[in-house]
Amino acid sequence: MPLVFNSLFTNLFPGKTPPERKASAARAVLAFNRPGAPAWTPRNYAALARQGYERNVIAYRCVRLVAEAAASAPLGVMEGGRILTEHPLLDLLARPNPEQSGAELFETFYGFLQTAGNAYLEAVSLDAAPRELYALRPDRMKARMGRTGWPDAYEYAAGERKVVFQQAQEGRQAPPILHLKLFHPTNDHYGLSPLEAAAASVDLHNAASAWNKSLLDNAARPSGALVYKGPEGAENLNTEQFDRLKSELEDAYQGAANAGRPLVLDGGLEWRSMSLSPADMDFIEAKHAAAREIALAFGAPPMLLGIPGDNTYSNYREANLAFWKQTVLPLVKKTAAALSRWFAPVYPQACVVCRTGEIEALSAERDAQWARVARADFLTDDEKRGVLGLPPLAAPASGGGGDA
Description:
Layout: H1 2-12, E1 38-39, H2 45-54, H3 57-72, E2 75-79, E3 82-83, H4 88-94, H5 102-116, E4 118-126, E5 129-136, E6 141-145, E7 151-158, E8 161-166, E9 177-181, H6 194-197, H7 199-217, E10 224-228, H8 239-252, E11 269-273, H9 283-298, H10 316-343, E12 351-354, H11 363-374, H12 381-387
Antiparallel strand pairs: 1-6, 2-3, 2-12, 4-5, 4-9, 6-7, 7-8, 10-11
Helix pairs in contact: 3-5, 3-9, 3-10, 7-9
């Protein structure tokens, strides 16, 4: 694009130097895509959600744990270094639409982000100001590429109905779609979900559960063999005898309800038990290892999920604190920064922030920090408040008495 612009400028204004333009040289490479062509999501979201979230208890709990914790983190609005108590954005975040509270909306939003690696918010505007927010399903959304090779519109399809959201808005109006994505090293337009990274471990955990269920269905013990020793010349059962014997075993002796029931054998039949080796029985430990890998992908300490064999943390409180500091807070702060950038055309002075001082899980660490700052006699009151992220004290009405 810069080469084309320079050529046109030279032809129109001979002898003059084209004005400088700021543009990424690498991004221009993507502009060879056809304008308006959709970039397809590179995996089957429905299969991931079904096999991972819907059928795997560890992945289900990880998604819920992260989504519920992140949605419970209070968001505030700051202007000029002061936290506001009244602002249109505060009302919007607290009551985003008639059907959901702010916590419900962001729980859905974070759930989509953990499951698909992408999450979308739609802003419904009136008089150029956002009045309602809705979380949209990521599998129904496609990014449409503009001339720069980056999305300038999003297409939402539900059944045969399609809606196209143009991101460029006239005047002071926020774009209709906020797209938040997790880092993906090989995709320019979509994020990589923890569920996709843990897909192999999810399959292993599901297979181990299916194996365990099969053992339970088969009297919760390894299979055995019925050996027929008939008279000479009749060492094998005929087809009718074999089918009858198999049917009786399935109906009368197989399953948890028939566990321990004595086996009645006809003449010539002998039961021989077959046991599994210790290596074959190691699937239980393999299941726990797969569960720990799933938790690792989501950033959830295994101790919080009740997975045995994990001694990384000395106690539950330490594990919960690490979960909040390493997983939840970075996610909430990333979302707050994205919201600030999204609403900047309408509220250029407002900044959405995470109010960490109101998070109960961080109360013990916060109390310790306050005690350390309170003992710092070399700091003024306003300096101590600055260290704690609080605004300075209001200046007195008449002179004197304030911090230097």
